[in-house]
Design a protein that fits this description.
The protein is of the alpha+beta class. Helices cover 57% and strands 15% of the residues.
Length: 457
């Protein structure tokens, strides 16, 4: 387009020169017809004035054309500035049908498309804002510098103060756990989770902070106050009921054992009945003990007496203390060895973990003929395992095997007297140590239960 305008101006200049040449030709023809006695000086002056007349005629025409072109170019610049300033309704109007008109038409079409795009973006933004405001969760987005980018109405209510965009999140929110999650997501670029209990009085929130592709982070707060209260009520109820059941069950077992120890005082049939009562009382007593243990490890007040222990010594203690149980079941206990690394562990809690895992393996892996215990070093931790060679566990049960009261074979578990709480207790105790649990199994190839303990600093 610029080349076309330049060509147009150059053509105008050539026309001006041609016009001046034509005027000079007319003048010289007139001079040729004059008298020969006129002097050359007079001829020169006539040529000079003829050139001046030609320029005086051509210059206004050129100036008028140049002014029109410059005015249209200034209009283009003003149009571009208005579009850059956000006035997307601005348009160019030109009655001429030339190259500049084609460019003006193209710019008008571009401005119209930009306006449509911005209108669509604004509509989607309003829809997203309405959707986020209708959520029950509190949502806040921050920039890479930690300044508030946006927050929904729930977040404003929860914070109890106005959260202004552009201000640091720490000025409006004083909860350290929420700020730590957001900071962790900004620095690491990974999702961070936590619990905020001081954001609003008497309310507890689960916090999930995730990095945004464009920079910054998005934090979502889910109110779990009622869930926490219901969970606390459940734990208190289980603990109270278990305590209340423990005393009568102990009395029942004591009286039954006393009656059974008296020779000839009762008939054989009554002795069988007492044996059934004793078995049921022991099962109930075991259930209450497991319920108390689970309520204890799930409680926020659960504390561990952590101390540095060598992994090999921890494994050896488990083998020595549980060897009798395995031998009484007619199984062979093997050791796969353990590293000499130090881990942080509570000895009593570890006895409970190994005891539950070995008891589970004895019940369900008895057909394999042996059990194997071992440990190995992993990244920043030591992984222990208890392996049996029984019938194994189907893959659909692996993910739920550590849930409370979950049983793969309910009929078999009732026959063997299991409570369905042993593996749940193992999971909570290991998680309290900062470790994790998992299970691997194939049908017909036995099952292996793993748990990790972190190394000492």
């Amino acid at each position: 387009m610029t080349r076309k305008v330049f060509t147009k101006l150059l053509g105008l200049f050539v026309l001006l020169l041609a016009f001046q040449t034509a005027v000079m030709e007319i003048v010289f023809r007139g001079l040729a017809q004059r008298r020969a006695e006129e002097t050359l000086h007079r001829i020169g002056w006539e040529v000079f004035w003829s050139g001046i007349i030609a320029l005086l005629v051509a210059l206004p025409v050129a100036a008028w054309i140049a002014v029109r072109i410059m005015a249209r170019l200034h209009g283009l610049v003003d149009f571009a500035r208005r579009i850059a300033g956000g006035e997307l309704s601005a348009r160019l109007h030109s009655p001429d049908a030339d190259e500049l008109s084609e460019m003006e038409t193209a710019l008008n079409q571009t401005a119209e498309r930009i306006g449509q795009s911005f209108a669509e973006i604004e509509s989607r933004r309003q829809e997203l804002a309405a959707m986020l405001n209708s959520m029950q969760e509190a949502v806040v987005a921050v920039t890479a510098e930690g300044h508030v980018r946006w927050s929904n109405a729930v977040m404003q209510r929860v914070a109890g103060t106005e959260i202004r965009a552009g201000r640091p999140l720490a000025h409006a929110v004083r909860d350290p756990d929420l700020l730590a999650c957001v900071k962790g997501a900004l620095e690491s670029g990974e999702v961070r989770s936590g619990r905020a209990s001081s954001l609003a009085p008497g309310r507890v929130f689960e916090v999930n902070a995730a990095p945004l592709p464009s920079g910054g982070a998005l934090a979502v707060l889910h109110d779990v106050t009622r869930i926490e209260a219901a969970e606390r009520l459940r734990r208190d109820f289980i603990a109270n009921v278990s305590h209340e059941l423990r005393t009568p069950l102990t009395s029942i077992q004591g009286y039954v054992e006393t009656l059974l120890e008296e020779p000839g005082s009762i008939s054989e049939m009554n002795r069988d009945f007492l044996g059934v009562i004793q078995k049921s009382a022991r099962r109930m007593s075991r259930l209450t003990e497991d319920l108390l243990a689970l309520a204890g490890v799930e409680s926020p007040d659960y504390k561990l007496a952590l101390q540095p222990m060598r992994a090999c010594a921890l494994l050896q203690d488990a083998i020595e203390s549980l060897g009798g149980i395995v031998a009484d079941a007619g199984l062979e206990l093997e050791s796969a060895g353990a590293p000499d690394a130090q881990v942080m562990a509570d000895p009593d809690a570890m006895n409970q973990v190994f005891g539950n895992l070995v008891e589970n393996a004895v019940k369900y892996g008895r057909s394999g003929g042996k059990l194997r215990l071992g440990a190995r070093s992993t990244d920043g931790a030591v992984e222990f395992w208890v392996q049996d060679f029984g019938p194994g566990i189907a893959s659909e049960h692996i993910e739920r095997i550590f849930e409370r009261f979950y049983r793969v074979d309910k009929a078999r578990s009732r026959e063997m007297g299991g409570t369905g709480l042993g593996l749940a207790i193992v999971k909570h105790v290991v998680q309290a140590h900062g470790g994790r649990v998992r299970a691997e199994s194939e049908l017909g190839s036995g099952a292996t239960f793993y748990f990790t303990l972190p190394l000492t600093a």
